[in-house]
Each structure stands twice: as structure tokens, then as C-alpha cells.
Amino acid sequence: MKFAAICIIAGLFTGGPIYAQRVILPRDVVGAAIVSDIARDRQAEREARRYPYASPGQGNITSAGGARDACVVEARQEMGAGARLIGQAVARSMATGWEVEGHVAIGNDNRPFVCSVRNGSVSGLLLRP
Question: What does the angle CA 58 – CA 62 – CA 66 come to, to the nearest 5 degrees?
């Protein structure tokens, strides 16, 4: 006990640092950050393979049929009250979701639309004139 007290007092008077644990070097911190980043990337890749089109918390569209239905609803809302789908909308798979094409109409005003679904939700809609 006396020896520890003497070492602490000697350290205070000499201006030297007193360590209660091992010294952490910058290279150790950098190495730990790199390993952590690699582990996070690998986990993200595993989740992407498991759930290719749906990211948790971003949307619930996980199929081509769901993408088609969501895009038709968006196109009808954009066109206005009383809009209806003409024919069938077609959904094509893309790298991060689907692209949906179809036609909506109100009366004689028939317009084609293109809609994209990314990460489980509708990300864009274009109603052509």
C-alpha cells in the first residue's frame, strides 16, 4: 500500500502520466475501427442477400405484385378522382427494386406512366402527357 502511494506521489511531482490501464496506441484504435467497419459491411451483405428488395424501416413492398399495386394506386391518385387503370401494369425487376409501366385514364384522357419502387417503397412516378 505504501509503495503504491509513493509511486502516485512520485508521478504527480515528476509530471509523468499515471496509467491505471494499458496505453492505447492510435494504431490500435485505427485497427479496431477497420475491423468494425468490415464486420458491419459483411452483416449488410448478408442482410441484402436475405432480403434483396426490402430494407427494414423503409417500406413494405417485397414483391413485383406489391410494386405493381402500389404504383397503380400512386398513378391513379396523381391523375385525379375517378382515374382507372387501362389494361394491366407490368413490373420489371431492377437491381434495387422494380420498374412498373402502365396506363391510367380519366374519361378520354389516357396517359402512360412509369413508376419506380426502391428499397420497399415507391420512389418516383412519371405520368407522361
Answer: 110
